[in-house]
Amino acid sequence: MTKRLWDITELYFDPKRQHHYETLFTIGSGYLGTRGAFEESYPGDTPATLIHGIYNHIPGALVPELVNAPNWLPINVTVDGTPFQVILNVDKADFMTPPNGLALGYSRSLHMDTGLLQREVLFRAASGNIVRLTFSRFASLHDQHVMAQRLTVTAVDGSPAITISAGIDTHVTNAGARHWSADRQIKASGSRCAVQVTTEPSGYTVGMAAALISDYPTHGITEGLRASMTISFTLQQEESRIIDKLTAIYTSRDVINPLETAEAKLEEAAVIGYQMLFDAHCHEWEKYWTTADIRIDGDEEIQRAVRFTTYHILIPTPRYDERASVGAKTLSGLGYKGHVFWDTELFLVPPLILSQPHLARNLLMYRYHNLHGARNKAKANGYQGAMFPWESTDTGEETTPQWSDPQPDGTRIRIWTGDSEQHISTDITYAILKYWRWTNDREFLLKHGAEIVLDTAAFWGSRVEYNAEQNRYEVSQQIGPDEYHENIDNSVFVNRMAQWHLQTALDLLEWLRANAPADADRLTTALDLTPKRLTHWRDVIAKMYIPFDREQGIHIQFPGFFEMEYIPVPKYHPRTRSVQEIIGHARTIQSQVIKQADVVMMMALLGEDLSVPAGLDVRQVMINNWNTYFPRTDHGSSLSPAMHAWVAARLHLNDEAYEMLHHAAHIDLQDNKGNVRDGIHAAACGGVWQAIIFGFCGLHIDANGELALDPHLPAHWREVNFNVYYRGEQRTFSVKNSV
Ligand code: BGC
């Protein structure tokens, strides 16, 4: 496998795509993420550093958001007095000596094997002298409080006078929203500078300290909201200089004195130096890739794309923090305001369970620590147990906005997901069960996981409604995965998953009684799992309404679905917009157009355990479901294509499976939804990994508790190799194509 399959490279700079690349080229350490904005900035750029857990709710704003931290990237260079910028085009008259300089060459690569972002620019100053500038940066995976930058300046033509000014800028906002109070510490002296800022009103403090490391006298200065350090020197033709900038960061979530701790950490890092920091960082990346990398022989395009999606699963996931989780847009953009959705548990957690189980555990612990918020939500809505918020932040309370941002006509749209998208509690339970089955982490299950599974089951026990006339249980006013259809009754996804949830909870309780009786007793008392309540659960399981059309042999997404307007989605191919955008919101919600995998999602999660009426062949029902719902699906959500790829592979629909995988794997790289500027589509990244491992390779735990494969690889793939953890042991798989 050639090395270049580890790189994503931008060969020329197109200002129209700068926000797209800022997102793609985000670096991260599981503690923070920093978008790939230029060190020297560029007009209209959107630099952002997002740190886990640092949320703030500005009075008057609808909801809290993850706060853009001070910018640690700035490195400004002047060459013979010309400020370096990526200037691409100049007036013909100025071509030889453009007054603002000219970029003669440009390339930028994200090296995914080492999490290193590198840019090389050949720059001609107004004086005519030419320099090569190579910028490198990484956020240390070995020490999450350290970030490092290196600038190599080479005189290619002439003997230029170079000035470098590097620092930290606290003049940052979230697209205009100001989160940092006016009370800031900003200081600089010699080759060191530092800042400390505090969010208002949430009161989180961030301290950052930076050093500029060179052989030259360095002057520290503060200017307005920025602290910086400056050096000057002259290069002889062909001479090179390496200048390093190191930055350390702490927040009040870590320590009581973030600024002092960052300053001390900086001195430690300065002694170690860039190269050794980088070596230690690479060592950690190597460990990540040993179990996270999927090696595909026969498809270079997918190989690179899958490394890219896997990279973006790894960089935002907290390594040492159980009280933070990964938002729908990771730490790579302001989209969805850093809020955590079901995307985490059903899309990101499974790849981590198999590749980095300790990271999966951290994410599940976030839910455990926020059980209080789920209990508050259940209570506030008149239910029992724990009902997790659809969108969650640092408090664990529901933070879904009730209204959208103003539309072009000034009106706002009511957002119902926080009220009605209740399947998230089951999604969390599903992830816990998966974690338990694959890791055997008994301690987690007994101390934390079981409580979540049982208390969210208690929620469903109180949430279902008994229809005496039909002698069945129903669930009204729901939003299933298909968010185009809001506040519907009896979503088959919701009803079947709730039934599965209750059964899982009963099985777990029985297992606890046999294997950990003290914990079973403790939880029975604490969660009030009375015999009456458990009998009720059994009754719900037996009588849950699962909408099904016997004649067609299909699940019904929800009663009434097929009575709405039928719109053949494939008729709109090829398209760059969603069908919803093409036909309009009002018509979409009255039609059979489905936003994303819904019944198909249920098939991905439950496989053949679908609850199909006796006498029917489950595989046939699955095919029928696919034939019914796939042509109606818009893929208006990035969560959709990977789930379709997974299910299609299981159903041996090879062409559809590959088409959907290709789509999912390129959502961010090709920006085929047009919104990558807002951040990476985390769920799509996790979905791609699962589609390959669970779908194409068919990795599963068999009836004897052994790992087994059932591969259906695309015809042109020769081989897929990967490692996973199973019950504490690393296992290696090599799947050869038999086609
Ligand atoms: C999808 C949801 C998803 C959310 C955040 C929405 O567009 O429909 O399923 O949780 O985006 O990614």
Give a verbal description of the structure:
- The protein has 739 residues and is an alpha+beta fold.
- Among the domains are: 3-289, Beta-galactosidase, Chain A, domain 5 (Distorted Sandwich); 293-359 and 635-739, no CATH class.
- 34% of the residues lie in helices and 22% in strands.
- It has 20 helices and 27 strands.
- It has a nine-stranded antiparallel sheet with strand order 1-8-9-10-11-18-15-14-13. A five-stranded antiparallel sheet has the order 7-6-12-17-16, with no helix packed on it.
- A hairpin with a 4-residue loop joins strand 22 and strand 23 (554-555).
- Helix 9 (424-439) crosses helix 11 (492-515).
- The longest helix has 24 residues, at 492-515.
- It starts with 6 loop residues before the first strand and ends with a strand.
